[in-house]
Design goal:
This protein is α/β, with parallel strands linked by helices. Helices cover 44% and strands 20% of the residues. The chain is built from 10 helices and 12 strands. A 10-stranded mixed β-sheet has the order 5-2-1-6-7-12-11-8-9-10, sandwiched between helices. Strands 3-4 form a two-stranded antiparallel sheet. The longest helix has 26 residues. This is Nucleotide-binding universal stress protein, UspA family.
């Protein structure tokens, strides 16, 4: 088993590398550093594609330099961790998804060298989070100053969204395991939202009844999920339960401001079947200022593979 981390020479990937090295040391597993080189392919109109040797040579030199620097940085940070550094060829997301098969985690920066800004938020990290069978950790461009670093495992907490879906179940189990490993508490958050249809806007009685029913339903899902998924080994993990009204992504981002990490399922209850990464997960990835972990349920991952 290993922690896989993608690097590309950017400051974002340097932060991901540091986080991944510390995580590998914490787990007692190897660190697998990957650089993926996407070869430039051009051709004259209506002819076979040609890969030009000169740019490939330059790119290979840059890739080797990045991997050498990455090995040195990881070794300086965690001297006891066994590490490998591999140069892959192809489409970055596909190569990292393949590298993640059987891995403990895949760790990526929120953006890399090719990022064009928020409109094209982390295309590689988003694709990997959507398809990878391993949990995917996306390390943000910058963290809140108040947010604890990975080198301070006794501070902060692990935040997890709970909605009763299969993906949420896996997220809860992952969050509790991570909290136990770090000796942290868990904040389990269930979010509900009451649709303000016109009739409810006009009559507060309708809204009050609807709000109460939605809250009770969220509380029941939260209590049932935690009771079902916790094991005797989790007795030392303190789990705070919180039920909040609002937009799920906004609530989770706010709850995680001083967290070590936030864990979300790749999709939640009610999200469109076949959507690879749910709207809540995408929004949390986009706005969080701390590492976010995206997990899939094993059954859903198998279904996605079958769709390909």
């Amino acid at each position: 088993m290993a922690v896989v981390v993608g690097v590309d020479g950017s400051a974002e990937s340097a932060r991901a590398l540091a986080w991944a090295a510390s995580e590998a040391a914490l787990r007692g597993v190897a660190l697998d550093i990957r650089y993926v080189m996407h070869l430039p392919v051009t051709s004259a109109p209506f002819t076979d594609a040609v890969t030009h040797a000169e740019p490939v040579t330059e790119l290979r030199g840059y890739a080797d330099a990045v991997l050498t620097a990455a090995r040195g940085a990881a070794r300086d940070r965690e001297p006891g961790v066994t590490l490998t550094a591999t140069l892959d060829y192809g489409q970055p997301a596909a190569a990292l998804i393949s590298a993640g098969v059987g891995a403990d985690l895949v760790v990526l920066g929120a953006r890399g060298m090719g990022a064009l800004g928020a409109m094209f938020f982390g295309s590689t990290s988003t694709r990997v989070a959507a398809r990878c069978s391993a949990p995917v950790v996306v390390v943000p461009r910058r963290q809140d100053r108040s947010q604890p670093s990975h080198s301070q495992p006794s501070h902060g907490r692990v935040v997890v969204g709970v909605d009763g879906s299969a993906h949420s179940d896996v997220a809860v189990r992952f969050a509790v395991d991570e909290a136990r490993r770090r000796r942290l508490a868990v904040l389990a958050v269930a979010v509900y939202e009451v649709p303000l249809i016109d009739r409810w806007r006009e009559n507060s009685i309708f809204y009050g009844d609807g709000e109460k029913a939605a809250r009770v339903s969220a509380e029941e899902r939260l209590v049932e999920t935690l009771a079902r998924l916790r094991t005797p080994q989790d007795r030392g993990v303190d789990v705070e339960q919180r039920v909040v009204s609002g937009r799920a992504a906004r609530v989770l981002v706010e709850a995680g401001r001083e967290a070590m990490m936030t864990v979300v399922g790749s999709r939640g209850r009610g999200e469109v079947r076949g959507v690879l990464l749910g709207s809540v997960s995408q929004a949390v990835l986009h706005h969080a200022r701390h590492p976010v972990v995206v997990v899939h349920s094993p059954r859903a991952t198998g279904l996605l593979d079958a769709e390909d």
